[in-house]
Amino acid sequence: MTRHCVFLTFQSALNRLSDCRHCEFFINKFVKSLEKYRMNADPRRPDKVQRYVPKTGSGNGQEDLTPDYMNILGMIFSMCGLMMRLKWCAWVALYCSCISFANSRISDDTKQILSSFMLSISAIVMSYLQNPQPMTPPWASAVN
């Protein structure tokens, strides 16, 4: 059904309702607005349309390196947590892995992020398996 046919069906329905004197004013106003819409159906201006062109990040060097830095830091801290049995290093490694995952793009390597997570979780598990006591903060030994 075209716009013209829809307009004609609306107009015929409104003509049937125009017997009521109270509604006649509103019906006339509605018919005029329908005629106006029919004349100017598309309000867009084709000469003002600008096509979207996505920017490429490879040419200008403004890439966000936060996920890469956090991934490296997470691996370093998890190795410190595993080798030196420092629980706070293992927790910092998990925190860095979460930041790296949150800031990564879809095109980034998921295997590297997953390995960082697994390494930090294994550092936490191993540090608590070797010493199940609660973690003491690093500054607690300096206070005593």
Number of strands: 0
Helix count, DSSP H or I runs of 4 or more residues: 6
The backbone outline, from C-alpha atoms, is elongated
- Average pLDDT reading: 78
Cα end-to-end separation: 86 Å
Return the string of H and E elements: HHHHHH
Can you summarize the main beta sheet?
A: none
Number of domains: 2
The gyration radius over C-alpha positions equals 34 Å
- Percent in strands: under 5%
Task: Provide the low-confidence segments as ranges.
Answer: none
Helix content: 55-70%
Structural class: mainly alpha
Topology (elements, then pairings):
Blueprint (H helix, E strand, L loop, with lengths): L2 H15 L3 H19 L26 H19 L2 H17 L6 H21 L9 H4 L1
How would you describe this protein?
- This protein is mainly alpha-helical.
- The protein has two domains: 3-41; 66-135.
- The chain contains six helices and no strands.
- α3 (66-84) runs parallel beside α5 and α4 packs antiparallel against α5.
- It is elongated.
- The relative contact order is 0.10.
Keywords:
144 residues, mainly alpha, 2 domains, 6 helices, elongated, Protein Asterix, transmembrane, membrane
Concise summary:
16% of the residues are buried. Helix 3 (66-84) packs antiparallel against helix 4.
